[in-house]
Amino acid sequence: MQWGWVVHHLLKLSKLGMSDLVLFWHRRDLRLSDSVGIRAARDRSPKVIGIFCLDPQLLQPAEVAPARVTYLIGCLQKLQDAYAQAGSQLLILKDNPRQGLPRLVMALNAQAVYWHKDVEPYSRTRDRDVAATLRSQNIEVCATWDQLLHAPAEIHTGKGDPYSVYTPFWRNWSQKAKPAPLPGLMDAIGLTDNEQQAALKAGVISLPSPQDLGFDWQNPLAIPPGTTAAQECLEEFVAGPIFTYQDQRNFLGKPGTSGLSAALKFGVIGIRTLWQATLSALAACRSDEARASVETWQKELAWREFYQHALFAFPELATGPYRKLWQDFPWEGTDQQFQAWCAGQTGYPIVDAAMRQMNQTGWMHNRARMIVASFLTKDLIIDWQRGERYFMQTLIDGDLAANNGGWQWSASSGMDPKPLRIFNPASQAQKYDPEADYIRQWLPELRGVETEALVTGNISPGDREHCGYPDPIVDHKQQQQRFKQLYQQQKAKTAS
């Protein structure tokens, strides 16, 4: 019996010694379950080591939301725990991946590096550079799609072109079979003591705090970090709210949405897992209304993919409008007006409540995002790109494709067949916050004001002065007319 144990132990050590060292480079896929690349890496070798690179290019304090970095660090902590439970490690670098990653690969004598492809212009250029360096050193590179149910090459028009309108995209996308969730990493092999020392010499560091990186977020996070929290959030959503999603999703003061946007941004839960949950929910439906609600949420997942496909096909979206008419639009708003919008001090209760929700929590309801974006572009007549940037500086779920797509939709500069869309703040409040619960929650100074005044915005000058709440920064009706005038002038100019 003792000799049998010795032989088994020697065979295990022999296997450990022969296993190729494979690095998996995490970016927006901070999980070990339902991961295309993790599964492929584990099939290649049991010795799968995670790596995350804190890229200074992507962590500029003036450009990145403190809430988002706080959530990121929390997710990395959870991911390190998951690697330890699987028998391996997640290594942290703080460096430009173009230099830091190849240096670590050589130090560890890794045979292969796996990662997931991305749609963002910077990420694609970075990945090409890193891949070229690794291949020049005879290191195997394996890059696959993971964050999408269908890669960009899979969804195209009959002529083979990318879609620029959502509805036909949805018809094509929805008809294709969706992949199933994948098993997680198990029975992995970690680094030896000598390899850990080599990793430290190559620049591996302990996971820093957000404060170490120059970010300070003291408020509670909109969603706890990590895969377990995201899975619990999903389970809670599909156990009830998903069946009334179609009717409840737009009401600002009700928990009618999934709350998974940050988890999707950082990939702490797999998109295949979410889709499988929708299929289970459909099977549990007992009414046409419930089925319609589940399908509406499926369409929201498709919107996410539409914007990512669009950014992949048209990378110029990251720096400017899709429609030519908006390339030199004569924006008129002032810096003072922009700062009032940012601070939630426009004098329009529904707009200010939404902006204060974002400033205080790092998250804003999707309907509210449309309201404040329309107000900035169509009432204040301020360039949508300024609002887009402020959202990325503030949101916990700030994602280039989704944020850019949403802003261009609201500004009428993007991929939307309707040429002009203007939201009336009062009618939006009356419809989606009829009891002013949302307004009162985020504008506590107005809690004593009558509901009708709050949802219409017709607060008396005396009440405004008593509450310390500003007068309306602009007149919506006048600004609507002015914007339409500028739009028609610009349209004529572009056509000539």
Give a written overview of the molecule.
With 496 residues, the chain is mostly helical. It has a domain at 324-495: DNA Cyclobutane Dipyrimidine Photolyase, subunit A, domain 3 (Orthogonal Bundle). It contains 22 helices and five strands. It has helices at residues 2-18, 36-44, 66-86, 97-108, 121-136, 166-175, 193-201, 227-238, 245-248, 261-265, 271-284, 288-313, 335-343, 349-361, 366-379, 384-394, 400-411, 425-432, 437-442, 451-456, 461-467, 476-495; strands at residues 21-26, 47-53, 90-93, 112-116, 140-144. The chain has a five-stranded parallel beta sheet, sandwiched between helices. Strand 4 (112-116), helix 5 and strand 5 (140-144) form a beta-alpha-beta unit. The termini are far apart.
Rg calc: 25 Å
* CATH structural class of the domain at 324-495: Mainly Alpha
3D shape: globular
Topology as a string of helices (H) and strands (E):
HEHEHEHEHEHHHHHHHHHHHHHHHHH
How far the N terminus sits from the C terminus, by CA atoms, comes to: 91 Å
Strand content: 5-15%
Give the strand tally: 5
CATH topology of the domain at 324-495: DNA Cyclobutane Dipyrimidine Photolyase, subunit A, domain 3
The low-confidence runs, each spanning 5 or more residues with pLDDT under 50, are 1-17
Can you tell me the CATH architecture of the domain at 324-495?
Orthogonal Bundle
What is the tally of helical segments? 22
Structural class: mainly alpha
CATH superfamily grouping of the domain at 324-495: DNA Cyclobutane Dipyrimidine Photolyase, subunit A, domain 3
* Cross-sheet strand order for the largest sheet: 3-2-1-4-5
Instruction: Describe the main β-sheet briefly.
Output: 5 strands, parallel
Fraction of residues in helices? 40-55%
Mean pLDDT: 94
